[in-house]
Amino acid sequence: MNEFSSAAETASRIRNGDITASAVIEETLRVIEEKEKDLNALITFLREEALQEAKELDRRIAAGEADGPLLGVPVVVKDNMCTKGIKTTCGSRILERWKPPYDAWVVEKLREAGAILVGKSNMDEFAMGSSTEHSAYGPASNPWDIERVTGGSSGGSAASVSAGYVPVALGSDTGGSIRQPAAFCGVFGMKPTYGLVSRFGLVAFASSLDQIGPFARNVEDLALMLSVISEHDPRDATCVGADRPDYLAAAERSSLAGVKVGVVREFLTAAVEPEISKAVLDTAAAMKEAGASLVDVKLPSAGKAGLPCYYILAPAEASSNLARYDGIRYGKREEAGDLMELYFKTRGSGFGKEVKRRILTGTYVLSSGYYDAFYLRALKVRRLICMEFESAFEKADLILMPTAPSLPFRKGELVDDPLQMYMSDVFTLPVNLAGLPGLSMCVGRSGKGLPLGVQLVAPQWQESLILKCGRAVEDAFGPAPVAGRGGM
User: Fold this and answer.
1) pTM to 2 decimals?
2) pLDDT (tens digit per residue) in 255-294
């Protein structure tokens, strides 16, 4: 196994006895140790734990006691997913020493499938950011250019896959936090339909928007990961109980004959970098070559009102969810003379600037006198955006559009300009508002060698269609390469 291997190939070789889980993990750790000093993609590196798990897995395989679709595959999960006895910081000082007493559902499923956790990935604090510069543990660096950002908030997971640490990783997506870093780091990243994957053990940002999803360098591995993590969980009331289709079968090579692809040409404007607009049109042409037909669709409210709508609703939910970090129940606690001082000192020192900004914004829009003017109006706009997607899907089976309007920007370039930073999610957050599945794919590199990402969006529960079309795009442009190593 090496940094080019897919998850499916790695599991198959371990299952067939061609290589041991220990050898895979030793190579994984070597790559991480070589590159991590430049990338800062991980908050917690589980070196000894991974070696021990691999040794035990080899023993169980030899005894005929172990198998699974991710047998011996090294994985990284975002540091807002609970891991029993392992730090879960959410990229924040307020949880810097917190060790959950249980695993998140998705972590349970990964372990049951035979995967080995090698690290918890760097992220914007409490998933609030678009660059992973808002991490209390320092910014992550883009493997294609370490002077540039990874995107966010799941930047560490995207960078881990891009750099060849692991073939697959998990992130969470509230407004684009899987898809935008996937585009910036040149990998594949999928946000499933809201309710497909359990949020049990995911530390909440905005509960009506958050969804866990996978990163990979090819569509087959995305399908494999989705098959593992999407099993129904009765502990999450928002996780639907319907049977899941065969995602791996959907990811197999097939014609796109009969598939209508909607292109949102209003998104290919001067506000979008020309190379990204060209990448969208090139992807459309490739899908047409694979048998699809192209139609134009419009999403006027999603493009114009989605951003302000999201930045009312998400902070409102965040202000409620983050009220639990009070210095009493768990996490950081400052010494204080009375209860109010304890709140002020703990939250003041524990939360970063961006998290405080969003808590204050959310508290404001929910306050007396402003609730109707902001929060209720944003709920109406959210419904309008849902209706526009429904109308578009009457013309097209799925929609093709940019993932982000720009290529990865330089570290420090937007960190003090929150409005411009928020604009990097302008094409991803409407998908969360509507609860739809979205897939960002790497379709080449710019003239400066930076990744180009485009996005496919489908109706709810149509992950199989996205994977089918994503496979056609991958066939046209190739799988995502390890950063700096050949391909495309």
Assistant:
1) 0.96
2) 999 999 999 999 998 789 999 999 999 999 999 999 999 9
Which is the catalytic residue, given 162, 177, 227, 464?
A: 177
- Rg of the chain taking only CA atoms, in angstroms: 21
Burial degree of 62 (CB within 10 A; 0-12, 13-18, 19+): exposed
What local confidence, expressed as pLDDT, does residue 484 receive? 73
The reply to whether 332 belongs to the active site is: no
Q: Quick check: is 177 catalytic?
A: yes
pLDDT at 68: 97
From 135, 153, 154, 277, active-site residue: 153
> Which of the residues 78, 120, 191, 332 is marked catalytic?
78
Nearby residues of 173 by Cβ (< 8 Å), 6 or more positions away: 154, 179, 189, 191, 210, 211, 212, 213, 428, 432, 438
Active site residue 424: no
CA distance linking residue 175 with residue 305, whole number of Å: 14
Average pLDDT over residues 147-152: 98
Edge to edge, what strands does the sheet with 212-216 contain?
42-45, 116-121, 74-78, 168-172, 212-216, 188-191, 438-445, 451-457, 398-402, 260-263, 293-296
pLDDT of residue 10: 97
